[in-house]
Amino acid sequence: PQLAAPQLATSNPTLTTVALEKPFCMFDSSLNPNKSYSIYLYAMMESAVAGVSPVTDGGGKPLNSTFQQTGGGRLGPYKAAVFSVPNCASPPSSADAGDVNKVADVLKQRLFRVGDDGTCLYDPNFLDVCNPPLAPDTTYRFKYALVDNTDGIMKDQTLWSDPIKTRRVKLPMKIDTWPGRRSGGMIVITSILSVFLFLLLSGFLASVFSTVKRFEDSSMETRHVPQTVQQGELSLQESSE
Fold this sequence. Notes:
- By secondary structure, the protein is α+β, with helices and mostly antiparallel strands.
- The chain has helices at residues 103-110, 184-240, and strands at residues 18-21, 37-45, 78-84, 111-114, 139-148, 153-157, 164-165.
- The chain crosses the membrane at residues 187-209.
- It comes from Eudromia elegans (Elegant crested-tinamou).
């Protein structure tokens, strides 16, 4: 098993997952056209000594060890997935990964993500193969096995993969927030948002100032009207006398 190509899976591995290429054309010589086969994917921690870890019992039957039974792969290999043998005659094209209408189907056919199920361990009704999240900052190895569905016997298998390590959790105090480490696009977006906030605040202050100004002008007019009326009444009294 190999890591998925960067153009198909970015940020791979993650803290808890590893995206692997499915075994296209890997077991062709072992396939019988009159039989049905499945691919088993086994996972284990590097500390479990992958080189001498068999995935069959004494009778050639594939192991059905679970994530829980092996302590998440710490004690030995566990079955992380079961899927159909990929079609070697017509593999999905990598070029189709650039088509938004085809990308989901292409990724499903070409890749398998180990550690992608966050609920199976806690679901009492879950009966399928459990593929829980992997441990961060931990080295794993993986193996594909070809299993005859009729006889339940393993017909072929790959070597264990090279060591693959999940990412380490980064402490908040070690995250670099200096602008020099930010991309140009992030700086432009931040600048635009800052200008927008300044304009919004300026508009709000202008609106408040305008409202206060109108209120003051209205108060002055109200005080001026009674004075004018009073002066007119005095003029009438003087004329009558």
